[in-house]
User: Fold this.
Amino acid sequence: MPDSKDKPKKEKRQVAVALGYDPDGDSAPKMLASGRGSVAEQILQIAFANNIKVREDADLAQLLSAIDIDNEIPVEAFAAVAEILAYVYRAVGQAPPQNTPQNTPMADEAPQASETPQ
Assistant:
């Protein structure tokens, strides 16, 4: 019987997601794109080519990758996404929109990407 050490290891595949948010709207951020492997690489290439800030967060990428495209992010992800958006605002030297019913601290017009090896 082959030893478990002899089993081929599954190659870890990169996961990437892209989020978008309309600060003038009244909905939560939505999933714009999600993919693994070569699709994840394409998402990241598009983000980099468009000067979109990318932040690596393995747990959040895993959670968000299960969401269908054009669906809002789940409530469980709000705090983590707000943290990433705050990071993006600091990185581009902007102040986040004020916290009003129409503008939440998670507001950002540019799509965001998150990546992780899978």
